[in-house]
Structure prediction request, 561 residues.
Amino acid sequence: MIVGIDLGTTNSLVACFTEEGPRVIPNRLGKHLTPSVVSVDAEGNVFVGETAKERMSLYPDTVAQTFKRSMGTERDYVLSGRHFKPEELSAMVLRSLKEDAEQFLGEEVTEAVISVPAYFDDKRRKATKRAGELAGLKVERMISEPTAAAVAYGLYDKTKDTRFLVFDLGGGTFDVSILELYHNILEVRAVAGDNYLGGEDFTQVMVKLFLHKAKLSLSDLTAKEQARLYRQAEKAKCAINDRTEVTLSFLLSEEKQEQTITYKEYEEACEELLLKIKEPVKKSLSDAGLKLSDIDEVILIGGATRLTIVKDFLIRLFRKFPDTKLNPDETVAIGAAIQAAMKERKEEVKEIILTDVCSFTLGTEVVVEYEEGQFEDGRFCPIIERNTVIPASHTERLYTTHDNQTKVRVKVLQGESRFAKNNLFLGELTVDLPKGPKGSESVDVTYTYDINSLLEVEVRVVSTGETRKMIIKGQDNQLTDEEIEKRMQELAYLKVQPRDFEENRLVLLRAERMYEESLGARRKKLDHFLSDFEAALKSEDQNRIRETREELIRILDEEEE
Ligand code: AMP
Prediction:
């Protein structure tokens, strides 16, 4: 079975295509979203998702998050004194999703279609692919996130050509993409964004508003108090969507601080952020050579598009209602799962042509005449250039460089250097030519490259029509099996936690965190219920464990309120 995976900055999801259509697979805690957070403790125990996130405030030195931002770089993450690359941390998230999918489907999952941001370059895509390989997943196809969103919305089903804009406002990033469906081909026309704008900025506005009204400054608060205020502000931000006002309260030095914030006040305070949102929208339109009124549909994805303030702003901007029928957190994973089904050629989905961009240049070696009669060999001639929308097919005509030349050898190369020797050699084809003066004979070299990384090279002698072809698979310098095996062995000391205890582990961590955050009677109460639960765990009596766990969760929810 091939699954679709949205490997997100904040959260990740796995989805599959069933007889009833695409669906998101619940993780071991029964949730759809798995936080993209990893924790490794001193003994080499690995925690992924909610549990890793909960460890953040208790054991910050053991936790890594937002590593997607560093994919494809050599950034070194140190967790409990051990070193990890961003792709290795991503591999742990992918492995966790793979296990959840296998448990849910009751079969092995060996392959995945993974979504990546449209602006991800070759390096970051390769790192994503390696992360998949390290997690034991074959990743032959990647899909750009806006394309996945469009596929999930079924826009490809339309018969009429459509232009749409995918508006993706996540926790910390903002991406706008313009796609065009033209003759059944879905193409990304332009992408723009702001790497430092997202839902968290809207939470910050709520924090500032509260502090201003309470006549407090952030420096009056300890780090833990700030974290607590931030959590309350996040809740207030989500609550204000369907209310005219919200009341935000939190404990500062054991004294309750409370302020009411109206929707109007919040909207005014967010004005600057809304203006910032406009910039990438304008840029993507101008890059695509389009006007606002040329957009037929607007699709919203990313958690922060749930903000009424943002939705209202977009309705005013585009003068139309955005399409929001799918859950914005799940749209990309659903699109990736549909793409996986297309790859498996499931009958329920019709194959449509998706495009992507080629993240490197493909070309050949040529001799260049730089001045009359002065030749230089070993030069690189690009045929399909980096960032070309694929599938693509380009032809270059090359002429003989010697009198009575009887053969032409076409070297297939990948890379960006002007000099052939610096680029990667992928293969070669030789054809015979009739004799003649130099420049009288020529060959047409055609490269056709598709989204499965298949490169077809055709060389045709113009005068005789003789044609030779070859197919080169996967120019992605994938890790060799030995390299994967080696790194997997290096990481073998890591102990992936058994799935069954996840819920207990998570409750324990949450209770410990809240214990640390509280004092006096509240602390005693938490200690009491926590001890009960710990005793139940020791007894290994499953009924007692379940009952005390539920009791503890109820107390924690109550206290957190
Ligand atoms: P994502 O990275 O797409 O998961 O988006 C995360 C962001 O969405 C965070 O800033 C959340 O606070 C925000 N978010 C999630 N749900 C809501 C909601 N109901 N209302 C407002 N913002 C939300």
About this structure: The pocket of adenosine monophosphate is lined by residues 10-11, 170-171, 198-200, 234, 237-238, 241, 302-304, 306-307, 329 (CB under 6 Å). Residues 86-105 form the longest helix (20 residues).
